[in-house]
Amino acid sequence: MAAGGESNSPSIASLTSLWVEPGSRGHGIGDQLVIAVLEWAKMQGFSQVLLWVTEGNSHAEALYERNGFTRTGDVGQIDPNTVIDQPRREFEMSKRL
Known about the structure:
Blueprint: E1 2-6, E2 12-18, H1 29-43, E3 48-54, H2 58-66, E4 70-77, E5 89-96
Parallel strand pairs: 2-3
Antiparallel strand pairs: 1-2, 3-5, 4-5
């Protein structure tokens, strides 16, 4: 599953979530989901797509990089009240359409 939506800027979309069942990973489904969100964003007239990837989630970051996303330099902190383990950082990534 994947979800995209509008951001705070009318020209920028957000890839807000992406998840593939563990047993189905490694078969290109994640790439297909990212591509679907990118195509949706392009059809809606957005010029850029942003997302946030959690520190240490190297598989997700590699997926996004493979699909043309790069880190913007913006870093956020995941709310410690919403995670079970230690608070972690997240990195913003962007792709121009």
